[in-house]
Automatic annotation (TrEMBL):
Residue segments, region Disordered: 410-433
InterPro entries: SET-MYND_domain_protein, TPR-like_helical_dom_sf
PANTHER family from the UniProt entry: RE32936P, SET AND MYND DOMAIN-CONTAINING PROTEIN 4
Biased composition annotated in UniProt, kind: Basic and acidic residues: 423-433
Entry keywords, A to Z: Methyltransferase, S-adenosyl-L-methionine, Signal, Transferase
Transmembrane region(s): none
GO BP annotations, alphabetical order: methylation
Domain of life: Eukaryota
GO terms of molecular function: histone deacetylase binding; methyltransferase activity
Signal peptide: 1-26
Name recorded for this polypeptide: SET and MYND domain-containing protein DDB_G0284059
Single GO cellular component term: nucleus
């Protein structure tokens, strides 16, 4: 059976064992089951629902009137996440459900004295075409937000705009009192210094292992393998390692409480334009996720989550680690091979939609591909896992003792200095070019360096059982199918999803 285009991107070092697995994959019953299930892989995610958003917004308004601000904020945030994009459903809220949800949430946040968050919601609501008839109150509320954060000049401008638009004389009198109150406030912004203290490595960073201190060295010996050892005396409190993860995925249980991208706890979550399953803490986090991985994962996000189903009429049974295929949108009975999977040959699923049952590690494997994109993934593959041989690049070798050294690689600083010396032009152009060059080299070198470390890790793959490899192959085939239908290999995300449905 064919593994399919792009599968090698998802299975590190597996092709060398293809012959071992070939007999299992050639099993007719297993092969037919795999073909049938993969043919049913379709987009499955919680989409937008204007009616649901409308009802949650009304519930939030009632909670606000009752003085339950925490409940009101939760319901208003749900309304925002559920709201479709502008004019996608004109039959409800005249197509501006998102703007109205943000408007209500800004009012709640203002009452909670979360002025900066309320101000951000107001700006977003205006972008989502907040009705013109609400503009006077909009500028008034914006003035209150600026006043709350101590920006009196902007508060005064906002109040004056509101004053021009207000028609009601009583409202104007109240607004005049707010304008007068600005005279008693300091014009300096009242902002807190929330910057975290920077943590640095003791004795500086190693040239080719920048996350590791010079106090530590990496050694590789035939009988002991690869390990870290002290390079000199180390004191209590010395920081030896600082490293951001190469890839990280938010646990599904935290989708509603933490940012999908940076994992910060949510206060006023920002929506995904396509699904309502995940949320972000800021627009910048949302846009970065959409630019890279989420545009491919979004349509299948619900299929990746383990759900409870009825198995042999016993509720509350999960299939994680037992059944690794999705059977979407129908009640199914699927015969599988006992000798391969090691459990009963018939699994009835009554009244439930079965998802993939993939573990968080499977999602991490997928994210390694989606966050890099096809071009970068191909480049990484050609450098580190092609020809069935994992290589250790000289960037790493130069800082590992006990191995034969490859050619020395100039440090990033040396290459930057060399390029600076050869560049021509006036001083302004030179500075601009150097800055762009440094950013480009920094990004490419960071990706190359981290990939070199990831793909040179000891895997002990020779000790893995064939049954375990088979399960990993099947999951990789499923993820590969999702990537194909998400347009990862062709670049046509929307077109492939429409075809798959």
């Amino acid at each position: 059976m064919s593994i399919g285009d792009g599968l090698w991107l998802l299975i590190k070092g597996l092709l060398s064992l293809f012959d071992v697995l070939h007999d299992c994959m050639s099993h007719e019953e297993v092969s037919n089951a795999i073909d049938e299930v993969l043919s049913r892989v379709v987009a499955l995610s919680r989409g937008k629902d204007a009616r649901d958003s409308h009802e949650r917004r009304l519930a939030a308004s009632r909670a606000l009137s009752a003085g339950d601000l925490a409940k009101a904020l939760s319901l208003a945030s749900q309304a925002v996440l559920k709201a479709p994009m502008l004019e996608e459903n004109d039959a409800i809220d005249n197509g501006v459900s998102l703007a109205l949800g943000l408007w209500l949430r800004s009012e709640i946040l203002l009452k909670m004295e979360k002025y900066a968050l309320a101000l951000e919601d107001l700006k977003l609501a205006l972008k989502e075409r907040l009705p013109v008839k609400m503009r006077a109150i909009y500028y008034w509320r914006m003035g209150n937000c600026y006043k709350g954060i101590g920006e009196t000049t902007r508060a005064k401008v906002s109040y004056e705009l509101a004053h021009r638009l207000l028609k009601d004389e009583n409202a104007r009198n109240i607004l005049d009192a707010d304008i007068t109150s600005l005279n008693n406030l300091s014009s300096a912004p009242q902002s807190e210094n929330l910057e975290k203290e920077e943590v640095t490595l003791a004795a500086g960073a190693k040239t080719n292992l920048p996350s590791l201190s010079n106090l530590v060295k990496i050694i590789e010996e035939e009988n002991k393998g690869r390990f870290a050892a002290a390079n000199c005396d180390i004191k209590t409190g010395d920081v030896l390692l600082i490293e951001s993860p190469y890839v990280a995925c938010l646990l599904p249980d935290c989708y509603g409480t933490h940012c999908l991208h940076c994992f910060e706890r949510l206060e006023a979550p920002v929506w995904c334009p396509k699904c309502s399953a995940v949320a972000f803490c800021t627009i910048s986090c949302r846009d970065e996720a959409l630019r890279t991985y989420h545009k491919y994962e979004c349509q299948f996000i619900d299929m990746f989550i383990v759900v409870e189903v009825l198995v042999d009429d016993k509720p509350g049974t999960t299939l994680r680690g037992v059944f690794t295929f999705p059977v979407v949108g129908e009640v199914a009975r699927l015969k599988v091979c006992r000798s391969v999977y090691g459990f009963c040959t018939k699994l009835p699923y009554a009244g439930a939609t079965l998802r993939s049952g993939m573990s968080i590690l499977s999602h991490v494997a997928l994210r390694m591909i989606t966050q890099a994109g096809l071009e970068t993934s191909l480049s990484i593959h050609s450098k580190y896992i092609s020809n069935e041989v994992k290589t250790v690049d000289s960037l790493i070798v130069n800082d590992i003792e006990g191995l034969s050294k490859k050619s020395k690689v100039k440090s990033r600083k040396e290459r930057l200095n060399r390029n600076k010396k050869t560049s021509k032009g006036d001083k302004a152009d030179k500075v601009d070019n150097d800055s762009k060059l440094e950013d480009e080299i920094s990004f490419k070198e960071k990706l190359e360096l981290m990939s070199a470390q990831i793909y040179s890790l000891c895997t002990h793959s020779d000790q893995r059982r064939v049954e375990d490899y088979l399960k990993r192959v099947l999951m990789a085939m499923f993820l590969n199918e999702c990537l194909k239908k998400a347009g990862f290999f062709s670049g046509d995300v929307e077109g492939n999803i429409v075809k798959s449905n």
